[in-house]
Design a protein that fits this description.
The protein is α+β, with helices and mostly antiparallel strands. It is about 30% helix and about 25% strand. It contains five helices and five strands. Helix 2 runs parallel beside helix 3. The chain binds tetrahydrodeoxyuridine. Tetrahydrodeoxyuridine (THU) binds next to helix 2. The site of tetrahydrodeoxyuridine has 15 residues, from helix 2.
């Protein structure tokens, strides 16, 4: 569905990206089970390696504010082809959000909808430690 408020919020978050090195701005919006939306943008660093993706900013903001149950995440970049979450972000999303819906979009249209389990098959998580 276009006009999804989650995508709109991710587009707005993308405007706040700090990406002077790659110039590749990304926005994310994470929806909790009670409908609260927490946003994130990528924040780059001159050391490059300390850069953090939009998705992880959103997850860590949400968790730090006490949210622990999520339904969907929207990820927005200015690309024709879908921009899916990177591997580390898939792992972090799985850890804190489980099998949520991942909505991909660019500045004008949705480019895909996926379940996280399809983007991260055979995930490692607490169950593998015998503690989950
Ligand atoms: N990036 C994200 O924020 N999320 C993604 O899903 C893909 C990559 C950021 C990291 C870096 O700042 C820039 O995009 C280029 O990789």
């Amino acid at each position: 569905m276009e006009h999804d408020v989650l995508v709109t919020r991710a587009r707005e978050a993308r405007e706040r990206a700090v990406a002077p090195y790659s110039t590749f701005k990304v926005g994310a919006a994470l929806e909790t089970v009670d409908g609260t939306i927490i946003t994130g943008c990528n924040i780059e660093n001159s050391t490059y390696g300390l850069t953090i993706c939009a998705e992880r900013v959103a997850v860590f903001k949400a968790v730090s504010e006490g949210h622990r149950a999520f339904r969907r995440v929207a990820v927005v970049a200015d690309t024709q082809a879908p921009t899916p979450p990177c591997g580390p972000c898939r792992q972090i999303l799985w850890e804190f959000c489980g099998d949520i819906e991942v909505i991909l979009a660019n500045l004008t249209a949705e480019t895909g909808r996926h379940r996280l389990k399809d983007l991260l098959p055979l995930p490692f998580d607490a169950r593998n430690l015998g503690t989950g």
